[in-house]
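Board notes (copied after class):
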Amino acid sequence: MFIVLNQDEIALLDEQDQSTGGDGGFQGMLVAFQKSLRRGTSELRLTDDDVQRIAKYAFDYENGGWQTRLIGIFGRSLGPNLGREPA
């Protein structure tokens, strides 16, 4: 699927320092999204695995601040559950 991020969502995505891309986990995921974002059209391609990872990092770990960022980046496009079916 393709989503189109607005300028506020892109700004949140770009808060991740690209030098952390090799750190894996949440940081690596956001840096990979930065690199794959089509800057001219603000389009970002997300696979089903990407959507599952986004929801996993947002809801399945202790609160570390990234949940708010993920909801800020993807909540408008994927919904409040970030693509995960409600429980």
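Comment from the instructor: The first strand starts at residue 2 and ends at 4. The longest helix spans residues 66-78.
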